[in-house]
Specification:
The protein is of the alpha/beta class. It has a single domain, classed as P-loop containing nucleotide triphosphate hydrolases (Rossmann fold). The strands form 2 sheets. A 5-stranded parallel sheet has the order 4-5-3-6-7, with helices on both faces. A two-stranded antiparallel sheet has the order 1-2. The protein starts with a strand and ends with a helix.
């Protein structure tokens, strides 16, 4: 495991939460601070290549490929590995889009050591792949994101704040 001072950093840290909450911005900053590697959000690559008119099979394919890439990086020694989402987040996408998720998501068990749940306290920014920009939909997405972490019983902490305060919140969660 990587260390920061005398503290032990979790090997896998997953950034989790609604769209437009700063996950992709914070991920490389955390990797630089802790000497880690970022596993980027495969779902974004998929959406840019195939569009956002998802079927459940698309979401399972996204999750499977993201997990494959994660396992490859872990096998290569990435430590810590900063995950810009993972299959738990893709399950939440399924819940948002379809009201349920495929059983594959419930059978997936390679959860991260620590989840950072990003609060929806940043302004919405449209980027062509985001779908849930209203206050009500963002709240629903946040609530489902949190519920998935609680349901799974994983270790998680809320990250909030603007600018440097948001990064500091993430660092405090990791170091705590």
């Amino acid at each position: 495991m990587a260390t920061s001072g005398a503290r032990v950093t979790p090997r896998t840290i997953c950034l989790h939460g609604p769209e437009s909450t700063g996950k992709s911005t914070i991920a490389p900053l955390l990797a630089a601070r802790y000497g880690g590697v970022v596993q980027s959000e495969y779902g974004r690559d998929y959406a840019e290549a195939h569009g956002t008119d998802f079927a459940m099979a698309d979401l399972v394919a996204i999750a499977v490929e993201h997990d494959r890439r994660t396992q490859t990086l872990l096998a290569a020694g990435a430590d810590p590995l900063i995950l810009d989402t993972d299959p738990l987040m893709t399950a939440v996408w399924a819940d948002m889009l379809f009201g349920h998720h495929d059983p594959w998501f419930d059978s997936w068990d390679r959860t991260a050591d620590l989840y950072l749940l990003f609060d929806m306290d940043l302004p919405w920014i449209e980027d062509g792949t985001r779908l849930f920009g209203t206050r009500e939909l963002r709240r629903k997405f946040f609530d489902l994101s949190k519920a998935e972490l609680v349901r799974r019983g994983v270790r998680w902490t809320l990250v909030s704040g603007q600018g440097e305060a948001r990064l500091a919140s993430a660092i405090a969660a990791i170091d705590g």
